Amino acid sequence: MTINKTKIFLAADSTVQSYGLGEKNQGGWGEFLQDYLTDDVQVINYAIGGRSSKTFVEEGRLHKIAGEMKEGDYLLIQMGHNDATEYKPERYTDPSTTYKDYLKMYVESARKCQAEPVFITPVARLHCENDQFINDFPEYCQAMKEIAKEENVVFIDLMEKSLTLFESIGYEEAFTFFMASVNETDFTHFTKKGAKQMAKLVAEGISATKLPISKFVYLLEDQS
C-alpha cells in the first residue's frame, strides 16, 4: 500500500536550491533540510538561483508547485535577496508595496490547495562591520513579518537565527560557511557545511512552531 507523505515544497532562491553531488563546494539549505526531518515528510525543492518573489511567480514556478500541492502539505517561502536588486528591474520589488503583494500570492496559492504557507526571512550574508554582523535586507524582513501577521502566516526569522549563530561562533568560523572561503569573493552563497547549518536553523524554527510537522523534526547533534 502506498502512503502519501506530507510534502514540504520550497519556493526560494540560490541560497536554498539544491546543487547536488556534482557541485562539491556550494550548497543551499533546501538540499539538506530532509536530513533534519523524519521520513514521514518529503522535501521537494523548487528553489532556483536568481529568482525574486516576482520572477518566481512570473515564470510559472509557483503555478507548477500549486499543481502538486495537496491538503496537508506545506509551502516554505524564502524570498528577498533578489527582490532587493534595484539595478535589475525584472527582479526588483519594493518592500513596502510589490514585495508584499507577491508574498500574498504565495499565501493564496497554498491556501487554495489547503496547504499551509510558512514565511522564512532572507538568510544572512557574511557582512560584518565593527565586529557586528549586518542584516542586509531589513526592509524585506520587516515587510515579511508584517504580512505574516496580517495574513496569519507562520513566520520563521532565519535572518535573526543566522545572525545570532554567526555572532556565537565568530567571523572565522562563519567564514567557512560561505563560498568566500573557497573563491574569496562570494559572501552570499553557502558551502555545503554552511548550508547544512542553515538547514538545521530552519528545522529548529519548524520545531518551535505549533505546526503538525514540528513533530517530524529530527535534530542530530552534529550535521557538519
Shape: globular
Mean pLDDT: 94
DSSP strand (E) fraction?
Answer: 5-15%
- Helix segment tally: 8
Proportion of residues in helical segments: 25-40%
Count of individual beta strands: 9
Described by strand count, sense and barrel closure, the largest sheet is:
5 strands, parallel
Cα-to-Cα separation, first versus last residue:
36 Å
Structure class: alpha/beta
Explain what the structure shows:
The chain is of the alpha/beta class and 224 residues long. The protein is 35% helix and 15% strand. It has eight helices and nine strands. A five-stranded parallel β-sheet has the order 3-1-4-5-8, sandwiched between helices. A two-stranded antiparallel sheet has the order 2-9. β4 (74-78), α3 (98-112) and β5 (116-120) form a beta-alpha-beta unit. It is globular, with a radius of gyration of 17 Å. The model has no long low-confidence stretch (mean pLDDT 94).
Brief overview, please?
This protein is an alpha/beta fold and 224 residues long. Helix content is 35%, strand content 15%. It has helices spanning 53-58, 61-66, 98-112, 138-151, 158-169, 171-175, 180-183, 192-207, and strands at 6-12, 26-27, 41-45, 74-78, 116-120, 128-129, 132-133, 154-156, 190-191.
